[in-house]
Amino acid sequence: MSDSRSAPHARAKRPAAAPSRATAVKLWRAPDVLDAMMLKGEFVGHRYPPHAHDTHCLVLITSGSVVVDIAGHVDTLRRGDIVALDADTMHAAHAGESGSWKMRAAYFLPDDLAAYTGSIGLPVRSRLDVRAAVIRDAPLAQSVYGVNWCSEVNDDPFKRSETLAFAIGHMLSVHAAHRTALPSPRVEPRVIRSVKEQLQSDLAGRFTLASLAADHALTPFVLLRAFIRSVGLSPHAYQQQARIRYAQKRLKQGAAIALVAREAGYADQAHFTRVFKQYTGVTPKSFQIVLTG
After folding, report:
1. What is the 3-state secondary structure of 32-101?
2. 22-175 with 243-292: one CATH topology?
3. pLDDT of residue 21
4. Which ranges of 216-283 would DSSP assign to H, the alpha helix?
5. Residue 254 region by backbone torsions, left for phi larger than 0, else alpha for psi between -120 and 50, else beta
6. So where are the chain's domains?
7. pTM of the entire predicted model
């Protein structure tokens, strides 16, 4: 499933044009997401003939319905369903009863998957090797969507790096025919305390999961699992919590919202307002008015 017979990729043949009757198709390269070519698109009455890609293909259906034929197995996909195809897997697709579908997709080379799994501390894998190409798994769907969306809007590389690690680790450990054994998350409590202190003391720090792990001599995947097991939050979520707590204190003191946004590490006031409302249910302005009168 792609917008051409050959999957789009920075090092693979690119499509010459958007497919007929497709609307709102967007392609972009994501160097920090398996060096993938990403796609977001809506397809109206479209039909893909049998074809295969020279890249792996990870697709999330976000709206509508699409009928897929994957190596002779036919299924109807709807919102939240995932298709995971290894390179050279023959497949075809056409619109389902809704007449259209929307999807987000990532196309990446086997070598890039192998390099990535090794880099985050997982056993090296160059294939997805899923038991069934169609996957119905709500947490995985949320992660696949999050990585694609974060990449599209260039939102928070720290969050993106965590979400990608979860998605790949979850897929290979739960859905692969030969499941990947995840590394042990045993980490000394003092190391977790050190990570928490670093995130609290450097609210504006531009971390990624890899950079934070390197600071504490851990592999990224072990850090992610150990931190969640110990704290109940991912490192990125913990940083956001620390930022919001700091912002609440400064807003109570009457500090200007724009200044608080900068001090708390946000790129701009709009981003700060969006995250603050997500965590508290109110805007910074409303919060400050109530508490300062």
Report:
1. CCCCEEEEEEEEECCEEEEECCCCEEEEEEEEEEEEEEECCEEEEEECCEEEEECCCCCEEEEECCCCEE
2. no
3. 54
4. 220-231, 235-252, 257-263, 269-280
5. left
6. 22-175, 189-237, 243-292
7. 0.86
- Residue 24's alpha-carbon distances to 58, 80, 102, 122, in angstroms, are 19, 19, 9, 36
Tokens of 254: 């009457």
Residue 62 pLDDT more than 50?
A: yes
Q: Which option is the CATH number for 22-175: 3.40.50.2300, 2.40.50.40, 3.30.310.50, 2.60.120.10?
A: 2.60.120.10
Per-residue pLDDT at 11 exceeds 70 = no
39: exposed, middle or buried (C-beta count within 10 Å: 0-12, 13-18, 19+)? buried
Architecture of 243-292 per CATH? Orthogonal Bundle (1.10)
pLDDT recorded at residue 6: 43
18 pLDDT more than 90: no
- For residue 261, give the amino acid letter: A
pLDDT digits (tens, 9 = 90+) for 188-236: 999 999 999 999 999 999 999 999 999 999 999 999 999 999 999 999 9
